[in-house]
Amino acid sequence: MKKILISLLTALFLLSVPATLQAGSKLEKRYDYTLKMLKLDKATEAKFAPVLRAYLTEKKAANDPYDNLKDKYKAAEKAGTLTDSQATQLLEAKMEADAKELEVKKKYYVEFKKVLKPKKIWYAFDYASEKLSKIEGKD
Q1: Is residue 40 part of a domain?
Q2: Are 56 and 112 in contact (CB under 8 A)?
Q3: What is the pLDDT of residues 97-131, one digit of tens each?
């Protein structure tokens, strides 16, 4: 009986984990993948890791408003019933997110240059932008 109660409480807890923590796990996967793929020496990785984490966090924040709006209209988009107003909102939110993301990238390019050589910076941005399915090995 005690095991069942503990299992039930654990399941309820896991179901109540906020979406922000779930998104954090995506961020962590992206962070781990990028560091792994860059194959940095320990000293460079120690300097670069906090900068990469900050970059990924700011990049996510830049895209959050668009992602939230896209989720809101996902059903209408799938059903082909997206209105002109909804499409306009999505387009404007996407352009704003892209502009914010570019500003974040420019900011962190300067920070990355303090730790990495240009070739590694190129790959860092590339790996950090991979589709999650590829990061998870599903592609």
Answers
A1: yes
A2: no
A3: 999 999 999 999 999 999 999 999 999 999 999 98
For residue 61, the enclosing domain spans 24-135
pTM: 0.77
d(Cα 88, Cα 80) in Å, to the nearest integer? 15
pLDDT score of 73: 95
Return the structure tokens found at 90.
């999505």
Report the amino acid identity of residue 20: T
Residue 19 lies in a domain: no
Is residue 15 assigned to a domain?
A: no
Residue 137, amino acid: G
Going by the DSSP 8-state scheme, the letter that residue 72 receives in this structure is H
The token duo for 107 is 């900011």
Q: Residue 33: what are its φ and ψ, rounded to 5°?
A: -60, -45
Are 36 and 66 within 8 A, CB to CB? no
- Per the rule left: phi > 0, alpha: psi between -120 and 50, beta: everything else, 83 is beta
- Residue position matching structure tokens 């390019």: 109
